[in-house]
Design brief:
With 119 residues, this protein is mainly beta. The chain is built from 1 helix and 7 strands. InterPro entries: DUF6083.
Length: 119
């Protein structure tokens, strides 16, 4: 379901939201069970592009909920764990997730072209 973290005690917070492997930023959300999930930074995908068990929805109170094996409407967009597309992990199956993995790995061309020089 993704990497979750639980603070050691009431005074400890969850770890900084950077991947320990690639050091990319991640979004950290508390789950309904008092743990934290690290999701791909600022990305959502259509639910049909994310494997069941890896789909996370963010509730109105800001907490993340894993949808498990539930089928979601095709129009639903969801979050997913960073580790699926971490460039330090094996490439995922699925066209969209593979494209994100390649983007993160620097294999795919960057979508942001360099700024034109003034002159």
């Amino acid at each position: 379901m993704g990497v979750t973290y639980e603070p050691d005690d009431g005074t400890t917070t969850a770890p900084t939201p950077h991947c320990p492997e690639c050091e990319f930023l991640q979004d950290r959300y508390e789950t309904g069970h008092g743990r934290y999930i690290l999701l791909e930074f600022r990305r959502e995908l259509p639910s049909y592009d994310v494997p069941a068990g890896q789909r996370w929805l963010i509730r109105s109170d800001g907490k993340a909920v894993n949808t498990g094996e539930a089928e979601l409407p095709a129009t639903t967009r969801c979050r997913f764990p960073h580790r699926i597309v971490c460039p330090c992990s094996n490439p995922p199956s699925g066209t969209t997730l593979r494209a994100l993995w390649e983007y993160n790995s620097g294999v795919a061309p960057r979508l942001d072209p360099p700024a034109a020089e003034a002159g």
